Amino acid sequence: MMPPDPATHKVTPLGVVRRVSTSASQAADDARYWAEQMACVAARRDMDGFMRIYDHFGPRLQRYLLGLNVPAAQAEELVQEAMLRLWRRADLFDPARASLSTWLFRVARNLYIDSMRGEPRWLPIQEGLDWLDHEHAEEGGSSAESFTDHAGLSQAIDALPAAQARLIRMSYFEAKSHSEIAQELGMPLGSVKSTLRRAFAKLQLGLGRTP
Amino acid sequence: MKPHHHLDTATLIGYSAGALPTAFAVVVSAHLSICRTCREQLRDADLVGGQLMKQQEGAPLSASTRDSLLARLRATETAPARMPTTAHPAHDPDLLPAALHPYFGDRYSTLRWRMIGPGVHHIRAHDVADSHLMLLRTAPGRSVPMHSHGGNELTMILQGSYDDSLGHFAPGDVADLDVDVEHQPITAPGVPCICLAATDAPLRFSGWLARTLQPLFKL
């Protein structure tokens, strides 16, 4: 069974929409559901399952890339490219290390930096970093994500004070540098950074990390 | 190499969000390649990014994108993934971190240093549009002529070491400093200290000599 569509719980440009109390467990169920879909894709090269993933995440990736000022046609190209990478790397996808949403976010971000910022060798360097932890996990190192992480995180995001939520959104959805944020909001650079630090500490608490 | 001085979480958020100026992203990549602690922090930052992306309402994709993706899936061969060559930094002490190769070349031995003062050499990376990236080599037992100020400054020690009021900085360590931090590093005796530095304003060196040289060398 697919959980209710999380699109109804969205982050709007004006603020985080307060969710009903069941949203936390939904976030965990949701992460689990997509991990199962992905496992089918990896095991059977299941195209239908893959296209379900595309239909759900494709538009969200598109929204993310549009927010970063990628022109629509190019954003659609990058969404396709991210999905193709997922298809080709399905055997490497390990739900214990990263959820599908984290994985897709990371790939879309890397493709964005590669294509829009023209940073030489960004993609191979990111892949290299990825492998370091892949090997660590195989040697029995800590697994990074669990489904319950998503429950705690989604609650922690909802609970962020408005000022902190705003800076987190400006960072992630507009890819604004700390200096740009400081300029735009007329805040000292130091307070931009300390506000982001405080916000991140709360989100990590939601993830169950001990400080 | 187990670093003792790590990246600021605000910097890691910027990296995760694709929001760091290029020079800073390069320093972060170099540090991540040797620091598991910071890689774990980054995974949390990516998790936040993924969760925010998932919570957003989607934007419509054209039907032709879906069709063309299906067509490309059918045409895509899948092969078991292989480890890229960048994954394992070879244990060759002459090799620069992989993230620096596009800007400075592969090896310390082929770097073309330019003197900017007694005991101080530097190399500026070109092709970094939005920020400044440089290598700085300071002779042993000298004060490092850093000080950007008015902006961010992120430094990673590659060779040698220095001490300042914040502690001892050895290879792999990063000094991720807020604008208002005043520091005056002194390099340890023995070997020269090579640092990688990213700044968003051009580095300003203090002291009369540096002030005299600065216009000449366009630092």
Your description of this structure?
The complex is a heterodimer of chains A (211) and B (219). Chain A is mainly α. Chain A has helices spanning 23-44, 47-67, 72-88, 100-117, 122-138, 147-159, 162-174, 178-185, 189-206. The termini of chain A are far apart. With 219 residues, chain B is of the alpha+beta class. Chain B has one domain: Jelly Rolls (Sandwich). In chain B, the strands form two sheets. In chain B, strands 1-2-3-9-4-7 form a six-stranded antiparallel beta sheet, sandwiched between helices. In chain B, helix 1 (9-16) crosses helix 3 (36-55). The longest helix of chain B has 20 residues, at 36-55. The radius of gyration of chain B is 20 Å and the shape is elongated.
* Global outline of chain A: globular
In whole angstroms, the N-to-C terminal distance of chain B is 31 Å
Helix amount of chain A:
55-70%
> Over all CA atoms, what is the radius of gyration of chain B?
20 Å
> What would you call the structural class of chain A?
mainly alpha
Could you give a short account of the major beta sheet of chain B?
6 strands, antiparallel
Task: Give a nutshell description of this structure.
The complex is a heterodimer of chains A (211) and B (219). Chain A is an all-alpha fold.
SSE layout:
The complex is a heterodimer of chains A (211) and B (219).
Chain A: H1 23-44, H2 47-67, H3 72-88, H4 100-117, H5 122-138, H6 147-159, H7 162-174, H8 178-185, H9 189-206
Helix pairs in contact in A: 1-2, 1-6, 2-3, 3-4, 6-9, 7-9, 8-9
Chain B: H1 9-16, H2 22-32, H3 36-55, H4 63-75, H5 101-104, E1 114-117, E2 120-124, E3 132-138, E4 153-159, E5 162-164, E6 167-169, E7 174-177, E8 186-187, E9 193-199, H6 208-217
Antiparallel strand pairs in B: 1-2, 2-3, 3-9, 4-7, 4-9, 5-6, 5-8
Helix pairs in contact in B: 1-3
